[in-house]
UniProtKB/TrEMBL annotation:
The keyword Coiled coil does not apply. PANTHER family: METHYLCOBAMIDE:COM METHYLTRANSFERASE MTBA. This is Uroporphyrinogen decarboxylase. The lineage of its organism: Bacteria, Bacillati, Bacillota, Clostridia, Eubacteriales. SUPFAM superfamilies: UROD/MetE-like (SSF51726).
Amino acid sequence: MGNVNLSRVNEMTPVERAAAMAKGESVDRLPCNPNVANGVARVYGCKISEFNSDAKTLATAQIASYKRFGYDSVRIFTDLFTLCEAMGAKVKFPEDDTADLLEPAIIDVKDIGKLQPANPYKDGRLPVQLDAMKYLIEEVGNEVGCSGAVVGPFTNAFFLLGVDNTLKLITKNPEAVHALCRVSLETCKIFAEAVIKLGLTPTISEPMSSCSVVSPKTFREFSAPYLKELVDFIKSKGKGVIMHICGKTSHIWQDIADMGVNGFSIDNVASLADCKKSIGNQVRILGNVDPGGVVYCGTPLDVRLKTLEGIADCYDSPKGYTPMSGCSLPVETPFENIQAMMDTVRDVGYPVRPEKVEAMIADCKKQLESLKYN
């Protein structure tokens, strides 16, 4: 594990920062979350496969990464297949990479009625995830917001019958898709409730709801009703909701905002400025530095520039803004690039002074231009 740069430590804990911002009091900087995901294995020095069977390793790796970089949210998340696996799907587990779907829970639409909601305390890896959440909140819950990832009902439904089969059913057998989403939602709710009982906040990941995958019309018919029910359920338990949808989402921004989510995380292909104009008066916006093209493949200076440009676009969003990567960072993302995002937000400070940010952007561009000729 790398040493913390002691000259760049936070002046406030994330919990202190969030509480002060909510009261309109002074803070040191904007909240920031690079979304390191399974890259925490590289920080801690373990194999990703250990996350699937060892709750303490999963939690401790997340804590190690949080301590290393000082970001504002820590989440237990390994992959998108924990819920479908608990419902009968088969998952492949590389020794040191993120898990992937091997076989859906069922292969015939006639078997949808056989699917049962998962038991989060017994089925698949859900008990490991919950144990990790317990370790996490016991260790750092007093200083940083802790969350547990819940795969959204529409996305999880695709993994129950297979992505291609489910896409075909949208037009051929819409009733079957609704049946899949309904049983999927029940597992989402049961798992979300288990997360809440531990004191953590559920976050929702809904990549298959992206306009890059399905049309807004399809989203509104097959995803939105179940997603709204999940949001309402979580809020009824006293927790706010942060949601992430990958890819293009501009055509469904208003739908998401009207669900009553507290925050919406957008991918790098979406526009922060447009999102602010569209729904910034309803939800906090999080995003959206390119996780692959910039944070993984770029230099610290590239990361600094894109982080600054995001702040310039969205710092004044009415319900708030959190600089963040557009999605989970690749596992091998260089530490110095993650650090660059955090350092940039610290350098900007708070309240954000737009003229200072513009000067910092100009300086970055000048340095990048200079590097082309040297």
